[in-house]
Amino acid sequence: MKKVMLVTGASRGIGAATARLAAERGYAVCVNFRARDDEARRLVGEIAHRGGEAIAVAGYVGREDDVLRLFAEVDSRLGRLTALVNNAGILEAQMRVEDMPAARIDRILRTNVLGAFLCCREAVRRMARDRGGAGGAIVNVSSAASRLGAPGEYVDYAASKGAIDTLTIGLAQEVGPQGIRVNAVRPAFIYTDIHASGGEPGRVDRVKAGVPLRRGGTAEEVARAILWLASDESSYTSGTLVDVAGGR
User: Fold this and answer.
1) Chunked in runs of 10, what are the mean pLDDT values of the chain (248 residues)?
2) Does the CA dihedral 31-60-180-121 come out positive or negative?
3) 60 catalytic, yes or no?
């Protein structure tokens, strides 16, 4: 059976690393992006150059029409989905809760929570056995912030990832009988561009002394955990939250 994976927010960072590794392991990959067209298409070209199959599809996961179009593109161009990686996520400038405007909180929750729910819904509709599917795997990208709280920096982001943890546990129980496994990775202190969005590009270097392994992690290290959860090697693993946070 052909393996087809959709990775949301895949133009850079953990998403891009996951798409590359998935293609190396035989998946046809949909690289979803919201705004970074050049980076997404460069990644697709790189995968094709190495003999893999990939497409780039624009779409904002926080908008239902975009999500419907995104999954329809996967259906028509790659075939029936077998794996979803819910990676798209945002954070904003470091700020205390007492100073957060409602519009900011809405943006965070719309992308990080509503987007994940919509993508999970569409994936289940394609994977569920009672809908003609053959099962599959969903891997949600949460964050260790869901249990650490990110005080003084971005509690809104941490709260959104707490919702992802709960979604993972609940959905895994709901769709397990349909042959669908649902798990999450919880990265932290990873060298990606997301820290610049929070106003501190060098954040990992500032905090790494407090990480038991005394270093930051790489997007590739997170991608390997994601691919394990998506693969048959984790065939009896569901509803699990895997921390990729250097022991913190």
Assistant:
1) 96 97 98 94 97 98 98 98 97 95 98 98 98 97 97 96 98 98 96 72 85 94 98 98 95
2) negative
3) no
Q: Measure the CA–CA gap between 199 and 220, rounded to whole angstroms.
A: 23
Tell me the pTM: 0.95
Position 154, amino acid: Y
Give the other-Cβ count within 10 Å of 54's Cβ.
26
Query: Which residue ranges make up each domain of the chain?
Result: 4-244
The token duo for 153 is: 């920096």
Active-site option among 27, 60, 154, 157: 157
Phi, psi dihedral angles at 171 (to 5 degrees): -65, -35
Distance, CA of 45 to CA of 134 (rounded, Å): 30
| CB neighbourhood size of 239 (10 A) | 15
Fold (topology level) of 4-244: Rossmann fold (3.40.50)
3-state SS, residue 101: coil
